[in-house]
Write a structure and sequence with these properties.
Blueprint: H1 2-14, H2 20-42, H3 47-54, H4 61-64, E1 76-91, E2 96-108, E3 124-128, E4 137-139, E5 153-157, E6 161-173, E7 185-194, E8 202-206, H5 210-220, E9 227-241, E10 244-257, H6 260-279, H7 289-309, H8 321-348, H9 350-379, H10 382-395, H11 402-448, H12 453-486
Parallel strand pairs: 1-8
Antiparallel strand pairs: 1-2, 2-6, 3-5, 4-7, 5-6, 7-10, 9-10
Helix pairs in contact: 6-7, 6-8, 7-8, 8-12, 9-11
Length: 490
């Protein structure tokens, strides 16, 4: 045993490294392995290394041709989220509305996985949309092709989750309920589903609840046109598509019309026309100005109705309240116009009797003038009197004695007195007749200033109709505005 100990000692002396040589060799091996791992890890940190690892190219049919599941009975769950950027337009006459929305979708791909630790912690890559399969998403209410450019890229995570973000400008149908226009609230649906896959193959699910959807849409919304966004709800349902069922997500967008401009530009002007029609009762009925004024106001309301016809759809189930408002105003003004025509007709019945009285008065005045002229000529013609006197004097002969002349003179005087008295009696009789005629003429002139029977009737009709008109107009406006406020939103 002592020999063996001595032999081992001589060997250690012959080799100075002794037992440390194997340790050094093992240490060098580990250092070489560490250097190799570092070099390998630094060489696999790019996106292309991940794509090469997955064999993901445009020509790889494994990823783009079929639904990315390892078993055909596996269901692909598609998570969907939508936010509204803006309400661009609402067309009542076409019953369509235009939205600008943001869509987020995510689904799983069973063929894509990688260990992020082997690729420098790389968690996701962005690839073109055509290299991977995407759900065939359709919107049932969409009527026009999307005009916004589609997103060209997808995001792929290391866990096999595919994410797609896209902006859409949607022109979709929406059944407008315009019964309370312009105080209406509209609710429009957007229904998302697959075009060909059943609910056993693709199942849609919403990510956020309704309150978060509404709050988020209000934050990101940029434009609302003439509408005020109220809320947005979402619910999932299954619909039957002929031979199979399909999963669907329905977003319901509720919005309220801003009615200030419609009140200022439509409702108030028609109210002003009604006030003008009421003020027309102050215009005299004797001329034609009142009738022309009422016709002009009625035509103005007709123009407003034509404008309304270009706004509201003709497929409405019920007559809108604003149409009832216009028809009611038009009816009241038409009744007022008919009342004016009736009053003018009744007043015209007094005109023929007044014309006859005027003719009678004229004839009476002419007769009075003739009689007055005769009387004046009879009393104040000096030539007639002088000739009579001369005739009496000439009749006395110059050969007769003075006594006879005096007798003849007395006889002539008495004869003249008798003639003058008879003339005065005639004059008195003519003056009395003239006085009666003048009295009749003066009385007829006074009666001309008094209104006729039908004129008095028209004044009563005007008063009664004015009270009726104001009462009916106030009741109608109260009822129509109460219905506008209290009618339920459809």
């Amino acid at each position: 045993m002592q020999k063996h100990f001595q032999t081992a000692q001589r060997r250690r002396e012959a080799h100075p490294l002794g037992t440390s040589f194997p340790v050094m060799r093992l240490t060098g091996f580990y250092c070489l392995l560490l250097i190799t791992d570092v070099v390998d890890s630094e060489g696999t940190c790019s996106y292309q290394d991940v794509l090469n690892h997955l064999n993901l190219t445009k020509s790889t049919e494994l990823y783009s041709m079929t639904r990315p599941v390892k078993h055909h009975k596996s269901t692909t769950r598609v998570h969907l989220q939508m936010a509204i950027y803006g309400i661009l337009d609402v067309r009542e006459i076409d019953q369509t509305f235009v939205l600008y929305v943001w869509i987020y979708m995510s689904w799983g791909n069973d063929h894509i996985r990688w260990n992020q630790d082997k690729f420098c912690g790389l968690k996701h890559v962005v690839v073109p949309t055509e290299v991977l399969w995407k759900p065939d998403l359709t919107i049932e209410e969409m009527t026009e092709k999307d005009k916004a450019p589609p997103s060209p890229y997808l995001t792929v995570t290391h866990q096999g989750l595919i994410e797609l973000r896209n902006d859409l400008m949607l022109v979709s149908t929406c059944r407008m309920q315009v019964y309370k226009f312009p105080f209406d609230i509209q609710s429009c649906n957007l229904s998302f589903k697959s075009a060909v896959y059943s609910d056993d193959e693709i199942k849609f699910a919403a990510i956020l609840n309704a309150s978060k959807f509404t709050e988020w849409s209000r934050e990101v919304m940029r434009i609302q046109y003439e509408w005020l966004f109220l809320n947005m709800t979402v619910h999932e349902k299954t619909v039957n598509n002929l031979s199979y069922n399909q999963s669907m997500i329905v977003y319901t967008i509720t919005m309220k019309r801003r009615s200030v401009l419609y009140i200022a530009n439509f409702l108030l002007p028609i109210m002003f026309f009604l006030c003008l029609d009421l003020a027309s009762f102050l215009i005299s009925d004797s001329g034609g100005e009142k009738l022309g004024f009422k016709v002009t106001v009625l035509l103005a309301v007709t123009v407003m109705q034509l404008i309304l016809n270009d706004i509201l759809p003709s497929s409405s189930d019920r007559i809108p309240l604003i149409a009832v408002y216009c028809i009611g105003m038009f009816g009241l003004m038409m009744l007022s116009l008919l009342e004016t025509i009736l009053v003018m007709y009744l007043m015209g019945k007094d005109f023929p009797s007044q014309d006859n009285e005027a003719d009678t008065n004229q004839s009476l005045s002419e007769d009075c003038g003739d009689k007055l002229g005769k009387v004046v000529l009879h009393n104040y013609d000096p030539e007639v009197k002088n000739s009579a006197r001369c005739g009496c004097i000439c009749e006395v002969s110059a050969d007769e004695p003075p006594s006879d002349m005096l007798a003849l003179d007395r006889e002539g005087k008495s004869r003249r007195l008798a003639e003058e008295s008879s003339g005065l009696e005639k004059i008195l009789h003519e003056l009395k007749g003239l006085e009666k005629t003048l009295n009749l003429l003066l009385n007829s002139r006074k009666e001309e200033g008094k209104p006729g029977y039908w004129t008095m009737v028209t004044k009563t009709i005007n008063k009664v109709f004015f009270l009726f008109y104001v009462t009916v107009a106030c009741l109608f406006l109260a009822v129509i505005f109460t219905m506008w406020i209290n009618a339920p939103d459809e």
